[in-house]
Design a protein that fits this description.
It is a single chain. The protein has 280 residues and is mainly alpha-helical. Strand 1 and strand 2 form a beta hairpin. The protein has ten helices and two strands; from the N terminus they run H-H-H-H-H-H-H-H-E-E-H-H. It has a two-stranded antiparallel sheet with strand order 1-2. It has one domain: Growth Hormone, Chain: A (Up-down Bundle), CATH 1.20.1250.20.
Length: 280
């Protein structure tokens, strides 16, 4: 949630400061975006040097010394493997939102370019509220239902893109689903990994899923979505309905996979020890 607030705190002031500038003046002003980012990075790096020295603990007897191997070995468990596959699919869809929405808002919805960033940022504002209630939702709905809601958020948003581009107000309104898409799936995945992976392998497991969320998924998305945009483009017009039905279908498939095959034990401790959890 703190990261989301930081994202908004950086984006909105710069938008209003730069929105009225044009030409060379705008280019010079935009240079300060990179200068500011560089300064903050150096400040954070200096702060990091003041933190306590915390070397990794030595592996105890019987514990896998290579934690990343232990994390990978957890993929042998069906519910972890299913989550791994679904996370990759969802990460690819999620990055597709960032790749395609800007052009869609400008060319499909005919939104003025200066309002594209504020419109998309509505999702970030909604994300703050969604992250704040995530704990309550998890407690009431559980892992599976919460994650499924997060994935179906993508399906709902892209379905609205596909069928209702003539309603700019509705398109802007569904940006609030971004909070559900991110918090109910990705944030929940991070929490799930902390809960279900052995302590000595948690950091490596988080890295494994981060590889999907921030690496493999966006990498594949950067290839397939621009190619599909080109495939469905006729002159200057893109067939957005057909284009957006693809991520909609992918999200539905991912949700069905979770519903049918993702069955984690009720107790994380039972899973770690390899002992079936008691039925509830």
């Amino acid at each position: 949630m703190g990261g989301t607030i930081g994202w908004i705190a950086a984006a909105w002031p710069l938008f209003f400061l730069l929105g009225s500038k044009q030409g060379v003046e705008a280019q010079e002003a935009k240079a300060w975006i990179f200068i500011l980012a560089g300064i903050v990075s150096f400040v954070l790096a200096a702060f990091s040097l003041t933190l306590p020295h915390t070397p990794p603990k030595r592996a105890t007897e019987g514990v896998q010394k290579l934690a990343w191997l232990e994390a990978l070995s957890m993929l042998k468990k069906p519910f972890i493997l299913v989550l791994f596959i679904v996370t990759f699919i969802d990460a690819t869809i999620h990055m597709g939102y960032f790749i395609m929405t800007g052009g869609f808002l400008e060319n499909g919805v005919k939104l003025e370019p200066k309002w594209i960033m504020p419109a998309m940022s509505i999702g970030q504002v909604a994300e703050i509220g969604t992250m704040a209630i995530l704990g309550v939702v998890l407690k009431r709905l559980g892992w599976k239902k919460t994650m499924i809601l997060g994935i179906l958020g993508h399906a709902a948003r892209f379905a609205v893109y596909a069928f209702f581009p003539q309603y700019p107000g509705l398109i802007i309104f569904v940006q609030i689903l971004h909070g559900i898409c991110y918090a109910f799936f990705f944030a929940t995945v991070y929490i799930f990994v902390d809960e279900f992976f052995p302590k000595d392998a948690r950091s490596s497991a988080q890295g494994l899923f981060n590889f999907l969320i921030l690496g493999a998924g966006p990498f594949v998305a950067g290839i397939i979505w621009p190619q599909l945009e080109g495939k469905f483009k006729n002159g200057d017009v893109i067939d957005y309905q057909t284009l957006f039905l693809i991520p909609t279908g992918m999200a539905v498939v991912a949700a069905v996979l979770l519903m049918a095959l993702f069955n984690p034990p009720h107790q994380a401790e039972a899973k770690v020890e390899g002992v079936p959890a008691p039925a509830h």
